[in-house]
Amino acid sequence: MPTDVSLKFVSFHIDSLPIVNTQHKRNVRFHPRAKAQDFPAPENYNGFLAAGLFWSLLHPDPVFGKQISVFFLVCVIVAAIYGGMTAKRSILVVQGLPALLALIAVLLT
Fold first, then answer.
1. Cα 75 from Cα 3, distance rounded (Å)
2. Which of 46, 51, 86, 104 is exposed most, by the fewest CB atoms within 10 A?
3. CA 91, CA 93: separation in Å to the nearest integer?
4. Mean pLDDT computed over 45-66
5. Which class for 96: exposed (0-12), middle (13-18), buried (19 or more C-beta within 10 A)?
6. What is the pLDDT of residue 101?
7. 50 CB contacts (<8 Å, ≥6 apart)?
8. CA nearest 7: which of 49, 60, 62, 70?
9. 3-state DSSP call for residue 105?
10. pLDDT in tens, 64-83
């Protein structure tokens, strides 16, 4: 379950990079005039959350890996609540619901 959430956050992170999505969804390229100041730095939290969730899966100690997973899944849920309150309510469903389900699954194992 954390794998699904981490893969989702990898895609969110890629979406927040300075790229331009042309009319064809698969034709994505870097914008030549994109500047770092054009894109807010807090958008990079998606990559941080994805990396943390992958780290939890790869950690050699399964008990500590579970603790890492719980921490980052709670971070995803908090980010989804904040995003749902400030940006779009759909963020609660798209990001928060999978993270909540993954958290429940991790806590039950």
1. 15
2. 86
3. 5
4. 88
5. buried
6. 93
7. 6, 7, 9, 10, 12, 13
8. 49
9. helix
10. 999 999 999 999 999 889 88
**Contact between residue 57 and residue 2 where contact means Cβ atoms under 8 Å apart:** yes
Tokens 């995003």 identify what position? Answer: 83
Q: What angle do CA 80, 85, 87 make, to 5 degrees?
A: 85
Element (H, E) at 20: strand 19-21
Provide the 3-class DSSP secondary structure of residue 1. Answer: coil
For 5-25, how does the pLDDT look when each residue is reduced to its tens digit (9 = 90+)? 766 666 665 666 555 444 444
Written as one string, the DSSP assignment of 34-75 is: --GGGS-GGGGHHHHHHHHHHHHHH-SSHHHHHHHHHHHHHH
The token duo for 109 is 């194992």
